């Protein structure tokens, strides 16, 4: 007998027929002798539709109330799935995130999990029930519902798996596993049988939408084994685990990723003196706006430009903050570009192979794609380019590094 967490994304529960199919998968897993906890997302595009409804009322909906609204999507899914499982003669119970013991910090719309108290989940499992938990949500210190940000159901599933010491966390999605790049852009994309936490973390952080980056951080910290697989077939998926679990070395480059949800901001003619950068990025941090790439130009006559990237979602929040900071610093002003994208090559093997960067730059140059910003780590190299060149860049880099 095993202890399994099964997580199903929005496409998997989009409509009653798909919910019935998920119920059958869960029951099959239960009939194999496993104790099962299920985590589900909101059906289909419901979260986006709820956000759109709020934005029709105001461009800046109150974030506490927005979380109350968004949390309803997952609650629809858990209730319907429990109804489907019970209709087949199996005992199940649906729980909201707070009922399941998921606690979060005070940040609305992208809260972080502070702890998981699995007592309720374990109690229900001991009653031989299938436990179904609403993903994407937790209870904050003010006893309000707080949502965990885009892809937060992945985080819920992995955090629960860590708390109950599950044998495996299965992530069911609309693809067969993790691919070397997006198969919709590159027909030569290959499914990855195994990938380390480090490489998957870089993939998720640089645009791969299969897993949320924060969920991989938790998986690595608590050594939670994850298998990403399809909801629509029984094919073997892709395993994410520690490097000790692999019998082979990872390739030089594991994957090519891209992220179109990017915008670049530039503060012009900032005084070149200590403390300026701290004021700029401190103001953004107070509003929980994450900054990715940062470039500061060479000082000229006591001034320089500071450019950085944020998500397009955060651009609207960042602009008024930066205008205020810019005025306080007597900077020249702010410009932004929301027609950019980030393309990255990811691979733990890059650490021991020189020349990877030059090859990437050569490929982009050959296709006349200008590089606007560059960011590097031991296992990732990212370039900001114009969004219109993403498909060409991904295909050409995949052909060069992966074949």
Description:
- With 403 residues, the protein is α/β, with parallel strands linked by helices.
- The chain has 2 domains: 3-174, Acetylglutamate kinase-like (Carbamate kinase), CATH 3.40.1160.10; 257-401, VC0802-like, CATH 3.30.2130.10.
- It contains 11 helices and 20 strands.
- Strands 3-6-2-1-9-13-14-12 form an 8-stranded mixed beta sheet, sandwiched between helices. Strands 16-17-15-18-20-19 form a 6-stranded antiparallel beta sheet.
- The model has no long low-confidence stretch (mean pLDDT 92).
CATH architecture of the largest domain: 3-Layer(aba) Sandwich
Level of helix content? Answer: 25-40%
Radius of gyration, taken over Cα atoms and rounded to an integer in Å: 22 Å
User: What structural class results from the helix and strand content?
Assistant: alpha/beta
Percent of sequence in beta strands: 25-35%
Number of domains: 2
Q: What value does the average pLDDT take? A: 92
> What's the CATH first level of the largest domain?
Alpha Beta
Determine the CATH superfamily of the largest domain.
Acetylglutamate kinase-like
Coarse shape: globular
The CATH topology of the largest domain turns out to be Carbamate kinase
Q: What does the largest sheet look like?
A: 8 strands, mixed
- Strand order in the sheet with the most strands: 3-6-2-1-9-13-14-12
pLDDT < 50 stretches: none
End-to-end separation in angstroms reads 41 Å
Quaternary structure of the protein:
single chain
> How many strands in all?
20
Instruction: Give me the number of helical elements.
Output: 11
